């Protein structure tokens, strides 16, 4: 028992040391990531269920650290949120995504929407709406082509503040989506007060959709709630044709996921859009 304890202890400190060193490396690395051009966006296609039309993309951030290699946004976004660097990262994402959208429009490709993830800190300490307005003017992208994805926790962070900013964005014509819907803590009354265009059904409910009656009941409830409130629906994490078919059958409008398309570099997304013109 003593032996195991000692091993356990040693293992624990090693883990802690590595974890802490890595965290510091990431935190320091993030500060230079933009200038050193280590960031990129990938684009995951979104399709209508049914006629299977390409309607949009979600922009997802990627970071290649010079020594550590690719780092998941699930790891570095929380760090950036904690040290406030998310505001610069968020600006970079908005800027890059809108320029990409403008580029596609200039090539007369089919019009698509682009979803962009917004963090609480961007809503908290930043004139997000001014920034978005300016970027739309600069790029000539119509506001409706932009969809900002917010989570329930983002909206609950400072509800009054969030509500005011969301109203401004809505007036600009920008679409708002509630991300990871069903996993947060917001009361349903928020759905009425926040000016949302659609709900994104979280992938945790989609994963076992065909096996789990409860997940199916929850997804069904979300779809009918959305319909009754006049909101659109998109399911994320769709990995099989069976899931897509079930979601379509249940009345979900759109989907994204590995079955339909992985997040891809801008060049691949452009090819996908060009192919969509032909058919
Ligand atoms: P999210 O907004 O919920 O994004 C969906 C995540 O699911 C993405 O992970 C995507 O690559 C992944 N995914 C897509 N299809 C499937 C599928 O069929 N199966 C499975 N298992 N996963 C799928 P990713 O790219 O690693 O991003 C993780 C999270 O990091 C995002 O979750 C989002 O919360 C955050 N994030 C990513 N980019 C940004 C950004 O530009 N700004 C902010 N604030 N957050 C971002
Ligand atoms: Ca998202
Ligand atoms: Ca999501
Ligand atoms: Ca998620």
The largest sheet, given as strand count, sense and whether it forms a barrel, is:
8 strands, mixed, barrel
Instruction: For the largest sheet, list the strands in their spatial order.
Output: 1-2-4-5-6-7-8-9
Which ligands appear in the coordinates? Answer: ligand C2E, calcium ion
Oligomer status:
single chain
How many whole angstroms does the radius of gyration measure? 20 Å
Distance between the termini: 68 Å
Total strands: 9
Report the structural category: alpha/beta
Order of helices and strands: HEEEHHEHHEHHEHEHHEHEH
| Apparent shape | globular
Beta-strand percent range = 15-25%
Mean pLDDT: 91
Unreliable runs, pLDDT <50, ≥5 residues?
1-5
Helix amount, in percent? 40-55%
Number of helices: 12
Protein name: cyclic-guanylate-specific phosphodiesterase
Domain EAL: 23-277
Organism: Zobellella endophytica
Subcellular location: Membrane
Question: What's the helix and strand layout?
Answer:
Layout lengths: L1 H32 L5 E10 L5 E12 L3 E3 L1 H11 L2 H21 L6 E5 L2 H5 L3 H12 L6 E6 H6 L1 H14 L2 E7 L7 H5 L4 E4 L1 H4 L6 H16 L3 E4 L5 H10 L3 E2 L10 H13 L1
Parallel strand pairs: 2-4, 4-5, 5-6, 6-7, 7-8, 8-9
Antiparallel strand pairs: 1-2, 1-9, 2-3
Ligand C2E binds next to strand 2, helix 2 and strand 6.
């Amino acid at each position: 028992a003593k032996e195991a304890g000692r091993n356990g202890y040693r293992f624990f400190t090693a883990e802690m040391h590595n974890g802490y060193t890595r965290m510091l490396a990431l935190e320091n690395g993030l500060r230079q990531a933009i200038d050193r051009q280590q960031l990129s966006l990938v684009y995951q296609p979104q399709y209508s269920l049914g006629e299977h039309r390409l309607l949009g993309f979600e922009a997802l951030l990627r970071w290649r650290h010079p020594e550590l290699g690719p780092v998941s946004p699930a790891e570095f976004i929380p760090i950036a949120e904690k040290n406030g660097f998310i505001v610069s990262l968020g600006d970079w994402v908005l800027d890059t995504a809108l320029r990409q959208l403008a580029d596609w429009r200039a090539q007369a490709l089919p019009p698509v929407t682009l979803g962009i993830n917004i963090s609480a800190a961007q809503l908290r300490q930043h004139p997000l709406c001014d920034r978005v307005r300016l970027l739309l003017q600069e790029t000539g992208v119509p506001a409706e082509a932009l969809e900002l994805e917010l989570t329930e926790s983002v909206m609950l962070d400072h509800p009054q503040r969030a509500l005011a900013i969301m109203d401004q964005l809505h007036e600009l014509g920008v679409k708002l989506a509630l991300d990871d819907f069903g996993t947060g803590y917001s009361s349903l009354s928020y759905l009425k007060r926040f000016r949302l265009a659609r709900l994104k059904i979280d992938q945790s409910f989609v994963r076992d959709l065909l096996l789990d009656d409860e997940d199916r009941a929850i997804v069904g409830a979300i779809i009918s709630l959305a319909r009754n409130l006049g909101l659109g629906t998109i399911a994320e994490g769709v990995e099989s044709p069976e899931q897509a078919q079930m979601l379509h059958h249940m009345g979900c409008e759109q989907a994204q996921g590995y079955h339909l398309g992985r997040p891809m570099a801008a060049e691949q997304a452009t090819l996908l859009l060009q192919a969509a013109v032909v058919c």
